[in-house]
């Protein structure tokens, strides 16, 4: 008995990869919180929505969100980087001294900052990826080393008399186009690129696989150590760019407090944005929204004339809620 096939039979369609929703429920919640917060602040202090308030807010958001993009990669892989505050100090003081003493043009300052940040990120990445020591131990150690190096370069004196070389990245008229700060616009472009890379490329999905289960990822042929190294070098590059934004804020003097506490603001933005501190899940869009929320809280507390400690309290509450929600979600998945 012979079996014939119908030439006109329907062709089997190739199976297409199903992508998750481009906007997660956590990001929708963040947008709603931001909208409510902005409306409340506008009602309490009408000056909040003025350009004199919004432009500085966006300028302050830019470096935190920028480093947060790299930190998102790091935390997705199951790591963390608490050394970024010290790295900002090193990148800033090296670039500031060369800019002042050697009269470097803007492009050369940018190259110096990026190279310095990449070198520091490479140190972290190599020690973590190939030394196989937990990231928080390594980066806490390098944070102290970076602080020491930065303070030695400062030589107990602020860097004063800096030229206005980086005005294009600053908060002044030269640093804006159509009232949008260039630093914020650059951050948004890089965030879009990072979002697309993580969502639409095999290389991007490898970061999630490494954070979800590094052993399984290695068995699947993913070069786990290379991905970890790339995450920390990327963070270092973005720290270098963020230091340019810091130097461009309009002051002609740089002191030893530069970068202080920045690592906490960055990690807060990433965690509040929905990236799981356990690794394997995260969103660059959420990180940008988290950075905007953190800075909005700080700006609002200042404009309302409240004690500055309240901003830390509110940000801390947001972190606890975000981490708690993540833990509950993980428990629900394990026990359906």
Strand content: under 5%
CATH class bucket = Mainly Alpha
Total beta strands: 2
Q: What sequence of helices (H) and strands (E) makes up the elements?
A: HHHHHEEHHHHHHH
How many separate helices?
12
User: What name does CATH use for the topology?
Assistant: ABC transporter involved in vitamin B12 uptake, BtuC
* Largest beta sheet: strand ordering: 1-2
| Radius of gyration computed on alpha carbons | 22 Å
Overall pLDDT level: 90
Highlighted features:
336 residues; mainly alpha; globular
Description:
The chain has one domain: Orthogonal Bundle (ABC transporter involved in vitamin B12 uptake, BtuC), CATH 1.10.3470. 68% of the residues lie in helices and 1% in strands. The chain is built from 12 helices and 2 strands. A two-stranded antiparallel sheet has the order 1-2. A hairpin with a 2-residue loop joins β1 (176-177) and β2 (180-181). The longest helix has 26 residues, at 51-76. The model is unreliable at 1-10 (pLDDT under 50).
């Amino acid at each position: 008995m012979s079996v014939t096939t119908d030439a006109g039979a329907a062709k089997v369609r190739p199976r297409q990869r199903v992508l998750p929703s481009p906007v997660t429920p956590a990001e929708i919640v963040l947008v709603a919180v931001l909208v409510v917060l902005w409306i409340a602040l506008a009602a309490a202090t009408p000056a909040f929505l003025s350009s004199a308030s919004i432009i500085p807010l966006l300028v302050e958001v830019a470096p935190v969100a920028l480093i947060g993009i790299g930190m998102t990669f790091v935390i997705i892989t199951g790591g963390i980087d608490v050394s970024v505050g010290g790295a900002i100090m090193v990148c800033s003081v090296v670039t500031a001294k060369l800019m002042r003493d050697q009269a470097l043009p803007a492009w050369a300052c940018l190259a110096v900052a990026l190279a310095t940040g990449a070198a520091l990120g490479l140190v972290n990445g190599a020690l973590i990826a190939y030394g196989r020591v937990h990231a928080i131990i390594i980066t806490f150690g390098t944070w102290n080393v970076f602080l020491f190096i930065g303070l030695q370069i400062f030589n107990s004196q602020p860097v004063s008399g800096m030229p206005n070389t980086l005005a294009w990245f600053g908060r002044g008229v030269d640093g804006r186009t159509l009232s949008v700060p260039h630093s914020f616009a650059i951050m948004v472009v890089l965030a879009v690129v990072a979002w697309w890379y993580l969502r639409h490329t095999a290389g991007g999905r490898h970061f999630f696989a490494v954070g979800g289960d590094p052993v399984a990822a290695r068995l699947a042929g993913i070069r786990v150590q290379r991905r970890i190294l790339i995450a920390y070098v990327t963070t270092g590059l973005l720290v270098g760019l963020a230091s340019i934004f810091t130097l461009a804020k309009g002051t002609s003097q740089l002191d030893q407090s530069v970068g202080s506490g920045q690592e906490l603001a960055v990690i807060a933005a990433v965690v509040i944005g929905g990236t799981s501190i356990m690794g394997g899940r995260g969103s660059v869009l959420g990180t940008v929204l988290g950075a905007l929320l953190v800075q909005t809280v700080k700006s609002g507390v200042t404009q309302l004339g409240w004690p500055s400690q309240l901003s830390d309290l509110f940000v801390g509450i947001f972190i606890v809620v975000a981490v708690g929600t993540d833990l509950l979600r993980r428990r629900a998945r394990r026990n359906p």
